[in-house]
Amino acid sequence: MSGAVHTAPGATRRLPRIPRAALPQIIALVAILAIDRAVSPGFFDIRMSGGRLFGSVIDVLNHGAPVAMLSLGMVLVIATGGIDLSVGAVMAISGAVAATLAGEPLAITIGAALLIGLVCGIWNGILVAFLRIQPIVATLILMVAGRGVAQLITGGRILTFSAPGLSWFGGGSVLGVPAAVVVTAGAIVVTGLLVRGTALGLMVEATGGNARASRLAGIETRGMTVAVYAWSGVCAAVAGILAAADILGADANNAGLYLELDAILAVVIGGTSLLGGRFSIGLAVVGALIIQSMNTGILLSGLPAEFNLVVKAVVVLAVLLAQAPRLRRVFARSAAPPKATEPAPARQQGAQP
Amino acid sequence: MNASPNGEVLLEISGLSKSFGAIQVLHEVGLVLRAGEIHALLGENGAGKSTLIKTVTGVQGRDAGTVRLCGQDIAPRTTEEAVAAGLATVYQEVNLLPNLSVAQNLFLGRQPTRFGIVQGGVMRKRASALLREFGLDIDPGRPLGSYSVAVQHICAIARAVDLSARVLILDEPTASLDAHEVEVLLGVMRDLAARGLAILFVTHFLDQVYAVCDRITVLRNGRLVGERETAALPRMELIHMMLGRALEHSVSTRDAGRPRGDCIGAFRDMSRRGSIDPFDLDLHRGEVVGLAGLLGSGRTETVRLVFGADKADSGTAQLDGKSTRLHSPRDALRQRIGYCPEERKTEGIVAELTVRENIILALQARRGLWRPIPRREQDAIARRFIKALDIRPPDPERPIGLLSGGNQQKALLARWLATEPRILILDEPTRGIDVGAHAEIIQLIRRLCEDGLALLVVSSELDEIVTYADRVLVLRDRKQVASLEGESVTVSSILAAIASDDVAPKEQAAKEQVAREEVA
């Protein structure tokens, strides 16, 4: 056997799995928080005011909530080897729907906004899975058209509202924690259960890892693809509600603008390859926190906001370089044990006539 | 057969050697092509045919040897240089641009221009004239992609010939064509040979070789086995040259006369156009059915229809007496049919997932999304099969991509055994696996059929097939040509069936004539 055994099998040589895999992201987050603390000495101060917690750290969580929400759906889509560019536009649509129906009972407002997100996601999923349009193109359609749809819903104006139910998602809190943070934390738990409590996670990773093999193993890859885009749509709808409630209005032009890029970045920083396969929901959320910590830190430092974009660009570049096939190959060559010679040119039969 | 055995030598290859790393894939191979002949280059997988073509046409460098074209040494470094020298190649996958028009494809890079502007009309007229020489009367203004693969092939050949090629290399041009289209292409080849071109024809279809080729060169394991006149080479002998085995050597070690179990699967009249002709297949409990034939004979295509991996154009399937729909692997999985594909890396394993996850994948797919297999059960299943099949290293949490080929194959077997199938299909189960694992997998096959499983095994290793198969179906040129049973399952009888010839050349020529008229 040439599949060389390097270590005694079954030996407890592994570090606990999650911490080791998460190490780079955790280090990055801690480093950025430390820099934040350096530029703004009061960064970790938290105070209670009017039954609600305030402070820079709370800001990071609160403002990071929409991107974290988006990354929950995005991480699954990317794990199947796809991408969803439409989430920002879906945020705008769901925000517009929620604002339009703000006067109705809360269940209807929220239900309608979530439903429209679900429909958008299923639309994307059908384009990708059944019409076999490349994901980047398929979701680009809704990315462009979605803002138009949102503007049609709001009539081209910024639609403001004051309904207490919907407003709670922006200004409300649970035990002092901002509502957006609570909702997002809840969504993380729900997504985690959905993915790891069912076989969805395994099937997504299998499909992203090798779609042909997965189909031949009997996995319904198309249905699953629709499901992950649908979930991405729902997550985007929640983010849209949070964003609308934050400003007490639906701005079809600016709600969620460019946030799809932040969400993709969060997922990639979280270690999920754009080629699909293994993914981590927790690390995608950590990725969202890293992004927001950068944003908040730059604001606090007093540097012009333009720096924000440049710094983000540098981080993207670093992450993409680390994923570049050539670098990965170099890494794989040094890490992988020698493999058995595959389709051997010389077959043993007929070696001796 | 328009034999012109003494035509002028156009291409002379001698002493050609090539290594990739430590593996030598060509050992001093020689080949002579004469004007006006169609010359077959034959050999099984890994014989070195592709490498030979690539080194001759400059796609890859050569380590040693000379290539003389019309008496001049040539050493093209790119395909462009080869074409310029008069040596053109048309590959199985047409290397043209389907979105451009036929005329644009034919004259790409050398469009007729006036004051720097392409003259579309002139180009189309010339294209029409050129294609008419090849018996094609089509509109050269339409996109190439709107025509059939056969027409695209002929366009590729027309372009190559028009680029002043004197030697044409056709690398499996007929592999994706249906019978009718093949006839057309063979006719074009004959015309070209009659015009004095030399054609090197790489194919797996022996009927086609006997229909058009004057001479045959056989490679095996990177060495030249020999060059023969087609007319003087019986099929049987050709196949021996290709497979390199002696007829006498064939011993069956099965326990003959074992009673056959109930019929589990009955497939009738299954077919898929351009892939496999209609066939019948019965599978019985505890029986191993072997599928034998040369590469490209339709073995994999057969089992893919049975598994539902490809959709059948016609045919019915009955499982345990009940009519069944098998339109997707999911249907097959539900009906408890399993399939270990030949392409282990691209269609079998999910490399980055662990051995455990790979083993439970099909079982999980059958249980569905909402009934995840609890981790403890997953561990138990993985441990059980790692032990039973002796998968090494016995670490269920290792990514399967890091295992050797043999162990990956065992893990794939485990994947399907975990679903407790009624029918298990193994496509080349011992390919690319070292000798030790070979024997283990064969033992496993025997054990499985004793447990009442119906097995359908595709294999090129005839020695192996005869040791485990109760029945062997022989395929040739996408047709089932023989069914051997009991005592008659021997290497020599399989070889004889592969070699048998039921299409007379004359009949072939008549068919071809009819086909050309219909297409044009």
Automatic annotation (TrEMBL), chain A:
Keyword list, A-Z: Cell membrane, Membrane, Transmembrane, Transmembrane helix
Membrane topology: Multi-pass membrane protein
Keyword Transmembrane: yes
Major subcellular location class: membrane
InterPro entries: ABC_transp_permease
Membrane spanning stretches: 21-40, 60-78, 85-102, 108-130, 137-159, 179-204, 225-245, 257-276, 307-324
Keyword Nucleotidyltransferase in annotation: no
PANTHER family membership: ABC TRANSPORTER PERMEASE PROTEIN YPHD-RELATED-RELATED, GALACTOFURANOSE TRANSPORTER PERMEASE PROTEIN YTFT
Protein name (database record): ABC transporter permease
Organism from which the protein derives: Endosaccharibacter trunci
UniProtKB/TrEMBL annotation, chain B:
Domain ABC transporter: from-to ranges: 11-246, 251-502
PROSITE patterns associated with the record: ABC_TRANSPORTER_1 (PS00211), ABC_TRANSPORTER_2 (PS50893)
A GO term for molecular function: ATP binding
Alphabetized Gene3D superfamilies for the sequence: P-loop containing nucleotide triphosphate hydrolases
CDD domains: ABC_Carb_Monos_I, ABC_Carb_Monos_II
Pfam families cross-referenced by the UniProt entry: ABC_tran
Keywords: ATP-binding, Nucleotide-binding, Repeat, Sugar transport, Transport
InterPro entries: AAA+_ATPase (IPR003593), ABC_carbohydrate_import_ATPase (IPR050107), ABC_transporter-like_ATP-bd (IPR003439), ABC_transporter-like_CS (IPR017871), P-loop_NTPase (IPR027417)
SUPFAM superfamilies in alphabetical order: P-loop containing nucleoside triphosphate hydrolases
Matching PANTHER family: CARBOHYDRATE TRANSPORT ATP-BINDING PROTEIN MG119-RELATED, GALACTOFURANOSE TRANSPORTER ATP-BINDING PROTEIN YTFR
Protein name: Sugar ABC transporter ATP-binding protein
Protein's organism: Endosaccharibacter trunci
